[in-house]
Amino acid sequence: MKISELSRHSGVSLPTVKYYLREGLLPAGRSTGRNQAEYDVTHLRRLRLIRALIDVGNLSVAGVRQVLLAVDDGELPGHHLLGTAHEAIAGVPRADRGGPAWQAAREEAARIVADRGWRVHEHAPALDQLADAIAALRELGQQDMLAMVDGYAEATERLAVQEVGLVLARGDRASMVEGLVTGTVLGEAVLTALRRLAQEHTSAGLTEPPG
Amino acid sequence: MKISELSRHSGVSLPTVKYYLREGLLPAGRSTGRNQAEYDVTHLRRLRLIRALIDVGNLSVAGVRQVLLAVDDGELPGHHLLGTAHEAIAGVPRADRGGPAWQAAREEAARIVADRGWRVHEHAPALDQLADAIAALRELGQQDMLAMVDGYAEATERLAVQEVGLVLARGDRASMVEGLVTGTVLGEAVLTALRRLAQEHTSAGLTEPPG
DNA sequence: GGATAGCGGATAGTGATACTATCCAGTTAT
DNA sequence: ATAACTGGATAGTATCACTATCCGCTATCC
Questions:
Q1: Low-confidence ranges of chain B (pLDDT < 70)
Q2: A62 CB neighbours strand D below 7 A
Q3: In chain A, what residues touch B191 (CB-CB under 8 Å)?
Q4: Max CA-CA distance within chain B?
Q5: First to last CA, chain A
């Protein structure tokens, strides 16, 4: 497959394919001459993964690169890959962490996971993100919303067991790795879309019952 | 309160406060002279809301403007506000919707909500986002992940009942409106952070049990 | 075998976004 | 009086994710 065919088959414009090549998201094709190279289905597959992570998962190009580096690292154990995916999703950390209010929120976040018995890495970016959200809710005087946290935690714990089980059931490492990444990123997209739909249904149902 | 005090109290730089004023995110202060104006706690509160939506909720400035316009519209019924918040979160829609694969995914999305008996607006952006994610999972050969959809739907439905109940319990409209917005946007941040933590815990637990 | 379409690689340009800086004439505080 | 600050306007900057163009070379079709 030539680069133009790769572009056509994937629906990604040729300059953009070249850009991903330059950025190291897409491995170079097998060179068959000074200015000719051959691409195959693995490139096509990779390109589709890149687009899905960017478009659906809202990852940045830098985030995609991070994730793919981890995916391609055959040594990396599974849960490290998951951590990498989480870091890539997290993007650039907020600037104004560190005030006393944030510190308190951060401790609350740590307490929440500790109370559940969750064993997570002390510096997991999600812990900081949770603290960000808790601090924001408190600062805005919406702390009654924190009553939801238990429900969220229980639901996500139950779901995680299913998700991880689904991925582990696959057997071979390569497809587990891809499943982990897509499950994390695209699964999040599915979950948030469903949450919005559920909210819409529920709020319409409670404010104006069917008639 | 003068603009510089507003800046200091909120931790938002003065040029940025001016920028939000220009962009219409922050209402103008009460003018007390040709070049002097007075700001109060409502401005401070609004400024904090803006920062939370941008930093924690990952909304764009344009998205924040949309949400705030809806918040300030005293006429708008509650579930319309929710729809507006969802649209603002959704951001710019993807370009490549419309292919047969996407259409099929979109129908599947519609079927999922119909099977649950959810009554949602036919053109809800979340329906398109769900279709995006489903189409991407299929395209990447990860359709076994779609087995999670039921679990997600059930969990989000249960959570939505709690969330909406919490907001409705407040009584006065103004605080319900703010609760709706912050609950939607910041609640999403809390939920996704907890999901990542739950995943990390579960995947570590299943691959290397405590010892 | 000669035109021409396409190639890989390099470099530069574009448009959107979210600020950030500077300037100004006018006002307030010391 | 003078220094600091004000609201308002305009212009500049950094980053991101592409997009366009140019080059000398090659593959392919007639």
A1: 206-211
A2: yes
A3: 152, 156, 191-192, 195
A4: 72
A5: 58
Task: Name the H helices within chain B.
Answer: 3-10, 14-22, 41-51, 61-72, 78-90, 100-116, 125-139, 149-168, 173-207
CB atoms within 10 A of CB B131: 24
Count of other CB atoms within 10 angstroms of residue B89: 23
So what's the pLDDT on residue B211? 43
| Both tokens assigned to A122 | 């002390």
Q: Give domain A1-56's CATH number out of 1.20.1530.20, 1.10.1660.10, 3.40.190.10, 3.40.1080.10.
A: 1.10.1660.10
CA-nearest residue to B155 within chain A is A155
pLDDT grade for A84, boundaries at 50, 70 and 90: confident
Instruction: Please tell me the distance from the alpha carbon of residue A25 to that of residue A190, in angstroms, as a whole number.
Output: 24
- The answer to whether B58 CB is within 7 Å of strand C is no
CB contact under 8 A, A118 and B197: yes
Give pLDDT, residue B208. Answer: 58
Domains of chain B by residue range: 1-56, 93-165
Cα B12 to Cα B7: distance, rounded to the nearest angstrom: 5
- Backbone region of residue A93 per phi and psi (left: phi > 0; alpha: psi in -120 to 50; beta: other values): beta
Between chains, do B199 and A136 touch, taking CB under 8 Å as contact?
A: no
User: CB-based contact (8 Å) between A145 and chain B?
Assistant: yes
Contacts of B174 in chain A (CB under 8 A): none
Query: What's the confidence (pLDDT) of residue A211?
Result: 43
Which residue in chain B is spatially nearest to A208 when comparing CA positions? B79
Question: Is residue B166 within 8 Å of A148, Cβ to Cβ?
Answer: yes
Structure-token match 């407040």, residue found: B170
Alpha carbon A98 to its chain's center: 25
∠ CA(A204), CA(A207), CA(A209), 5° rounding? 75
Which tokens in the block code for residue B146? 């779609």
pLDDT for A90 equals 85
